[in-house]
Amino acid sequence: MKETEFEQRYSPLWLLLEALLEAGRGDDKVPDEHFPEQYRQVCGHLSMARQRDYSDALVSRLNRLVMLGHHRLYQRDSRATLQRLGAALATFLIALRQQRRYVLCSALLFILPALVMGVGAYLSESFTYSMLSPDQAAELEAMYDPGNARLGAERDSETDLFMFGYYISHNIGIAFKAFAGGIFLGLGTVAVVLFNGLYLGAVTGYLTRVGLGVTFYPFVIGHGAFELTAIVICGAAGLMIGHALIHPGRWGRLDALRQAASEAVKLMYGGVFMLFVAAFLEAFWSSSSQLPVAVKLSVGALFWLSVLWFCFFSSLGTRREPR
User: Fold this and answer.
1) Are both 152 and 27 inside the same structural domain?
2) pTM of the model
3) Do 20 and 157 share a domain, yes or no?
4) Which residues form a coiled coil (predicted)?
5) Any bridge partners for residue 150, and if so which?
6) Does one domain contain both 169 and 109?
7) Higher confidence at residue 204 or residue 289?
8) What contacts 269, CB < 8 A, 6 or more positions away?
9) How many domains does the chain have?
10) CA–CA separation, 200 vs 264, rounded Å?
11) How far, in Å, are 97, 106, 151, 312 from residue 90 at the CA level?
């Protein structure tokens, strides 16, 4: 097909799209439901024009039309995605505040044992070994040795990206155990949250007593804001399940479980997202021994303030839940 014949056949479509795109400049809405199909046709025309070595003027015209169409389509998609993420975040925060009594119970189950075990492990070596084995204690000392190039779990030949995957798997495993434990009348959730609180307290108290707090606290403070808060939130989701089974109210247990699960899942979405953030920070930020301690502590404190404010005091969670 000659270039003139090619232009005569398809020029009406090009003129139509040019008019629609120019008229809607600055507007992210797709002109009509036929636009995606018409856009794909023009992409095919551009490909043919290049293959057939048509004039530079024609190729430039089609290329410009394709670029304008691409911008309109994917700008719309990206804005829609951001709107969906914003709605999901608002739903999570609303659920978090509506279920604050479960969050408070989960927080107490986690924090109080951690404080008791932490003080005990700091004051008494035998108290430490009620939770940690001697081998575990020695491994912790090796992990937080100030001479390490990377802090935390041993890396050897593994990369930070590998550790990112490891932390995701480990953290989300804890989260789902805390959530799924609710099916055992909440006892499984209590056990998971309680154990993690005791373990954190034992590690913190022991490392502080042996003088490794100078590496441990800068390591844990950054990602801990997201990770520890997420464990509490996932624990709250599990407690909701357990309470629905123990005290279904006027509903049958199965109906009560369904209703509790629909609300608990909203908490889990937010908790799992926070665990992804925590895993990223733990792999790429917390483990670095090159950053000054003051910077790590300052940024970590900022993370804690931001997470607590955003989850419990920001205005986003005061909106009505989208229907």
Assistant:
1) no
2) 0.72
3) no
4) none
5) 288
6) yes
7) 204
8) 88, 92
9) 2
10) 25
11) 11, 22, 35, 12
